[in-house]
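User: Can you predict the 3D structure for this chain?
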Amino acid sequence: MLIGCDMSQLDPFTINLLCNSEVNDINQDPLGIQGYRMYNRPEYVTYVKQLEDGSMAVGLFNISDQPLTIGFIPKSLGIRGTQKVRDVWRQKDVAEIKDTERFDTEVAPHGVALVRVYPGNPRHRRVEVSRGVDRKF
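Assistant: Here is the predicted structure, written as structure tokens:
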């Protein structure tokens, strides 16, 4: 990560933002898969990124001038089963939902919510499914 300013002049909020281990873990995930745009609407954009442990990072970007409620359904992201949703900015779990339930959050104008959906599809399960051991979705 690069920052082009005098770090001794940063306020506590900015330092916390730059040093947030959960955000950095998503950015530096060993799987190395780039996030991709899942939804592109005039008011918002949603990016998702598969992580090595099977969880998924979801960025909900409000590109409008008004607060918006933005969300997703885990099953539409390819995730099955009951999931926890963790707000990585606040480093706290904010919901536990079934794969068919919708998670929604309020996002400020030109703001972003960044969450991690876990356990996602753990790696051992992805391998079993790819080998045809379990095809129950």
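The chain has a mean pLDDT of 89. The beta strands are 36-40, 44-50, 56-62, 68-72, 83-87, 92-97, 103-107, 112-118.
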